[in-house]
Design a protein that fits this description.
By secondary structure, this protein is mainly β. The strands form three sheets. It has a five-stranded mixed β-sheet with strand order 1-2-3-12-11. The protein is globular and about 70 Å long.
């Protein structure tokens, strides 16, 4: 196994740059950086920001009389968002699951609760009417061709006719989400977690970091003075000869 002699924090920066999309379409340039995010002196166009630092490294010899080392590294990933800065995220054809006529299986759910819904489709065919309800308890008995979704949970509610008629069909949706403050930093924290979990084996930019473990995902209270929201993640990885290669 041969790996480039690249500092591990730069490896994580490259990986997240490859996997995350910027919700702030008003800017250009990098917003994922190998440092704690700069906060002061920046306008709204510079947020949200993500910074990555190395918290610790430790190692042990791979075998007796061996110079190569099996290492453990812990990263801190800070996600920073500006207060009152709202971004709209458009999610296209999200796979919500498969509709089924089985007991209690006609409820499917969004990854993120929509601000507005463009369509809900069964096998690429759109339902005629999509209706928002405040809560699950406000669900009605919809007629054929109508789908309800709950603004409090993101659950979907189909008519019994459609559940039977579309049994086994894939349900997708295109919708918009409003992200601001806590919801924005939480969104990126989840996206970072999913990217690491799903792609550490296959993304070449991960460059020799393996077996990730999420140690912490915590929210900091709103900093009223600086007007920022902050979410902090800690991940531990293993590697061989950090920053040196084999």
């Amino acid at each position: 196994m041969t790996k480039a002699k690249i500092e591990p924090v730069r490896t994580m920066v490259n990986f997240l740059r490859n996997r995350l999309s910027d919700v702030n379409s008003s800017r250009s340039g990098q917003w994922i950086l190998p440092e704690f995010p700069r906060i002061t002196g920046l306008g709204d166009a510079h947020f949200p920001r993500i910074g990555i630092i190395t918290l610790s490294e430790s190692s042990k010899a791979m075998s007796m009389f061996e110079n190569n080392r099996y290492e453990t590294i812990t990263f801190q990933i800070d996600v920073i968002a500006k207060k009152d800065q709202v971004h709209t995220l458009t999610v296209t054809d999200e796979a919500l699951g498969t509709i089924s006529s089985g007991v209690n299986s006609n409820r499917l759910v969004y990854n993120y609760i929509p601000y507005s819904v463009t369509n809900i489709k069964h096998n690429t065919t759109a339902y005629g009417t999509v209706t928002q309800r405040a809560t699950d308890s406000a669900f009605t008995t919809p007629s054929a061709g109508t789908v309800e979704y709950s603004y409090s949970t993101g659950n979907l509610n189909f008519s019994s006719t459609d559940v039977t008629g579309h049994d086994g069909q894939s349900i997708t949706s295109t919708y918009a989400v409003k992200l601001e403050g806590q919801s924005l930093v939480n969104y990126y924290a989840r996206e970072i977690d999913k990217a690491i979990q799903n792609y550490w084996r296959t993304d070449v930019t991960i460059n020799g970091l393996f077996y990730p473990v999420k140690i912490n995902n915590s929210h900091f209270p709103l900093d009223e003075v600086l007007g920022i929201y902050r979410q902090v993640l800690e991940f531990q990885f293993n590697a061989f000869n950090l920053g040196e290669g084999l």
